[in-house]
Amino acid sequence: MSSARATIILIVAGFVSLSAGSRSQATQDDGRLRQLLDRYAAGDFAGSVADAVGPGGAVAAAGLLSQLRNEAPKWISAQSDPAKAGLRAASFSLEAAGRLLDVQARVNEHDDAALAASLATVVAADNLVEWGCALMRPRSPAASDAERVWWLASVELLQHHGGGDSLLFGWGRLYSGAPHMPHAQAAIPNSPELALASAMAPVDGGERPADAMFYVIDGREEFSAADMREMALNEGRRRALVDRPIADPESYRLHQRATYAQGLQTAAKRLRLIEGDPRVSAHARVLLGAVALCFTGGRDAARQYFTAAPAAADADADVRFLAAFLTGRAFERDQRMADAAAAYRRALSIVPRSSSATMALAVAEWMTGGQAHAAHLIEDARQTELVTDPWEGFQTHAFDRWPVLLDQLHGALRR
Ligand SMILES: [Zn+2]
Known about the structure:
Number of helices: 19
Order of helices and strands: HHHHHHHHHHHHHHHHHHH
Largest sheet: none
Bound molecules: zinc ion
Helix content: over 70%
Strand content: under 5%
Radius of gyration: 25 Å
Oligomer: single chain
Distance between the termini: 67 Å
């Protein structure tokens, strides 16, 4: 054998063994993904998703996405009911995105390297949602109940789990680039839930002026001018990474402030269109009240909305708590501290040991001569842990219905 030929044989043999190696790696990955999908289909939702995502990160997400692209179609067509299997695969992908975003939400945003990594994770999670979306789109617009829940859950996830942004309070990620909302609107047209989810979009990117309610009333929300500038710079950096560069963050900030009030007006108009729909009425009223509170002279209207909200069919405990708590905030603005205290007590009867309502009640009691009881409330709060309440979530997420929708989705998938 000539040495040249031996070399070629060696190279070919090496090549074959290399490709055999990568094929067995691929087979292993395929087997793993199919096992995960089997487990998900059998109802092991949390376990299979946790194993798919591991400790999180963009690399894990990219790996999962490529496995889904390559192998899920085969898994789907091998199932006895491919339509249902497609919904299951899309739901698996959606939940994996949710878990990734949950992990990245705990990243310290003041650490630039961690922030960049978390942005990569957000993009990867978006891609997972869009992979499921591409499976779901051809099935619409005749969406089944289960498919409807998938669309609502996907919007909820992108809107509220993308790093703590929000519509009412700042910068909603869904509307600053992600293309998913129009997909959902096309899939389930005339959905009041989607109308509610997108009602605050005109406020997106707006910055609260100094007389807006949360900015002034809630002590924790009182940012200094330096804080505001820092926030604008952070937003500038964020958009430079994921969206577009902002040459002058300061003028950007001023522009956002100028459009904020206009955005609120438009949002209120949208909310009034769905206020009468029993599926979203209570939620729409709480948002309408919150918007009214942002305007000087809007307190009476706000209190009327908060009074009407709990009577609506969709009023859950979160909404009832928010209506009571925000009534307290409205009374505070009118210096009616005794009325505010009564509203906070009502909020506490809905979510006992709520941290926001406990603190607000202590302040209101202190200001109306009830120093001893206020001190008792604070001391009691120091001794035992208070409960995280809907107001804390509302400040950053408006309404967080992801857990509820996930429960509904699981229920539908089990059937
Ligand atoms: Zn989409």
